[in-house]
């Protein structure tokens, strides 16, 4: 139910508000170093907030009195690249594939079984095709390229997801960790709990549909 709600919300933002290639989580921690650097360059405006869609809003703190408001949106900063807002049908299809991946994967697990390779392959294929389609777009902002880079790194997580983990990765990880524990002094007390609960942590934190 939660996964369905999240996917529905993302699809609504994509098809209605044209918000695509969103970061996860949507609200990122404040990058204070970037704010300080922008202030030094004079490109940071404390009075205006620019949304991912390109729409600008005044902060509540700097909103003028009611009788002095013009009700016009503040101008966009010069650093905002409007071309990143251009959303083509190719992007819509690719982003829809990425958003629907959790639902398709869960449906595949229901049809083929939790230990079947088919949901794993289907999910990996969908994510790869989606990334290739989005990366082929030339009109991307720096923030969008960063999000796509994170999604590319997430492909590595398939090495520790079922059923690949149980059939290939787990034995090699355990062999390496046992060698590491026995070879490096004082590491044993720290690593042995990880070895004991590796299977439980993998099942909890590495669901394909959790990303």
TrEMBL record:
Localization, UniProt: Peroxisome membrane
Q: Keywords assigned by UniProt?
A: Peroxisome, Peroxisome biogenesis
Q: So which domain of life are we looking at?
A: Eukaryota
Which is one Gene Ontology cellular component term of this protein?
peroxisomal membrane
Q: Name one GO biological process term.
A: peroxisome organization
InterPro entries according to UniProt: Pex16
Q: What is its main location?
A: membrane
Q: Is Transcription one of the keywords UniProt gives this record? A: no
Family, per entry: Belongs to the peroxin-16 family.
| PANTHER family (UniProt xref) | PEROXISOMAL MEMBRANE PROTEIN PEX16
The protein here is known as Peroxisomal membrane protein PEX16
Q: Which organism is it from?
A: Cinara cedri
């Amino acid at each position: 139910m939660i996964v369905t709600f999240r996917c529905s919300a993302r699809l609504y933002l994509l098809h209605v508000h044209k918000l695509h290639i969103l970061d996860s989580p949507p609200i990122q921690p404040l990058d204070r170093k970037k704010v300080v650097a922008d202030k030094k360059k004079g490109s940071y405006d404390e009075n205006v907030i620019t949304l991912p869609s390109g729409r600008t809003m005044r902060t509540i703190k700097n909103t003028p009195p009611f009788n002095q408001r013009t009700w016009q949106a503040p101008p966009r900063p010069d650093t905002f690249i409007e071309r990143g807002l251009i959303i083509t049908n190719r992007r819509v299809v690719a982003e829809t594939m990425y958003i629907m991946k959790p639902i398709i994967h869960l449906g595949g697990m229901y049809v083929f079984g939790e230990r079947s390779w088919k949901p794993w392959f289907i999910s990996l294929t969908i994510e790869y095709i989606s990334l290739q389609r989005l990366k082929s777009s030339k009109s991307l902002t720096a923030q969008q390229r960063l999000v796509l880079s994170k999604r590319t790194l997430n492909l590595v997580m398939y090495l520790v997801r079922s059923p690949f983990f149980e059939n290939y990765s787990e034995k090699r990880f355990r062999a390496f960790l046992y060698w590491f524990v026995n070879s490096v002094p004082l590491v044993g007390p720290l690593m042995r709990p990880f070895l004991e609960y590796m299977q439980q942590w993998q099942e909890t934190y590495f669901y394909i549909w959790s990303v």
